[in-house]
Amino acid sequence: MNRLAIELPGLQLKNPIMPASGCFGFGKEYGRLYDLSKLGAIMIKATTLETRFGNPTPRVAETPAGMLNAIGLQNPGLTGVMENELPWLEQFDVPIIANVAGTETEDYVEVAKVISTAPNVHALELNISCPNVKAGGITFGTDPEIAKELTSAVKAVSKVPVYVKLSPNVTNVTEIAKAVEAGGADGITMINTLVGMRLDEKTGRPVIANGTGGLSGPAVKPVAIRMVYEVYKAVNIPIIGMGGVSEVTDVIDFLSAGASAVAVGTANFVNPFVCPTIIDQLPAKLDELGVNHISELIGRSHRL
Amino acid sequence: MILQDRMVVQSQQQIAQDIFEMKLTGNLVGEITSPGQFVHIRVADSFEPLLRRPISIAAIDQAAKEMTIIYRAEGRGTKVLSEKRSGDTVDVLGPLGNGFPVDEAMPGETVVLVGGGIGVPPLYELSKQLTAKGVTCIHVLGFQTETVVFYEEQFMQLGETYIATVDSTRGTAGFVTDVLQTVDANFSMYFSCGPMLMLQAVQQMYPNKKGYLSFEERMGCGIGACFACVCQTTENSSKDYVKVCSDGPVFPAGVVAL
Questions:
Q1: Is A275 a catalytic site residue?
Q2: Mean pLDDT, to the nearest integer, of A15-19?
Q3: Which spans in A116-183 are helix H?
Q4: Which entry of A130, A154, A160, A162 is annotated as an active-site residue?
Q5: What fold, for A6-54+71-194+216-302?
């Protein structure tokens, strides 16, 4: 028996660990460092209908126990991803979760329709929470009604289950979670980055060319845990949790709060081997906690 | 191959104001293929500071599995790094990126190496490898002021070396371009590493010469995955953009839009 296996809509995960979208490109760079088949899944970088160059540099800035980024969804566009990136990933035994982004509902629908037909794409992750693009992105993720409508529109065309990535930049995250559930979402991924700003100490100007950026890294973990905890109570669809995961104990925390699987983001930049390292450490951690199967930990904090 | 190596500090010394030279040993050294490649260093095992620091390789000793890095301790991360002592270990990822093409210069040719400030270090290993194969190197090194000048003697041992300081406290008063105006233009190619404005000026000075420029940009992952260090390319480049970390940091002159 595989003690780490988790089953979610569209996804048979050999373990619940996956790199988060935007922190792993389309896998090529990390594929030079280790066998990607080891991963539970891969959330690939956001794909938009057209090629995007992204924002001017500087695009990143370090902050206490974290970093800000404003990459701006740079990607080769739907055609590039379908023709080059996804076929390359087929050599690995790993399900792909395709992150879908856009500026209009029609963009999301068009990308979802096509990308969900790729043989290795087992689920979509609707990016309604990117804080770094002028139009679209986060605007879809902060209004419950709009989030619900977009979810329904994408569900109507997708060949695979649809997960919706929630923004933490809202007053009440459960409202958005319930709205996307009502819109037909098969699952929720959370959280995206928190909008932040760092100023240059000499000039007073924002360090990031875009002005604001998305905060990630260990600094955001308490916010993410709180939000996963709240959303777990509010909805009946599974959650893939993320936000500041760097080590195996963080994974246990997210599962306890209610996540069924866990994504690792910024930590990949600090330690490119972080995902396989955590996967290797999980069985011993289960022993330590006296748990037979990892699924027993899901939502544990709510049963105390 | 890129390794994550716990390298051992052999020595650390301050060689100019805020400038440190550190020697490290480990298996990673055996993977270095060209001068101008860099390493990505995690200076602390805690979350503070969180990200790695990209630092260029100044010298390699394959027999001793030793590399030398020279860096400016200016920000939080490099200050922590400057506190390491011999015997300490450091988490190093590398070697990363593509360095200078030593093969492009033929024995008997003369080349010019132009460095600015903390862009000078990778030119040292480059010059060692070029001179070892019989290429004559002329070094033009620019600094802000006398107190931050380093490795002048080391470069002099390899070939003609000219120093420029912005405040005229050492060598030629002004910039590397002021020195270059006095250098015989009868050389075959140039190699340069330093601030963007300097690279721009050098490239403009020699529009018809073959040249290689090493760029610096804020980085996240250092391996090409995060798209933090992306640069726009010129119209005559085959790509729309390049990543400084994995496509560079060294590019032929004319590729990156300056």
A1: no
A2: 98
A3: 138-141, 144-157, 173-182
A4: A130
A5: TIM Barrel (3.20.20)
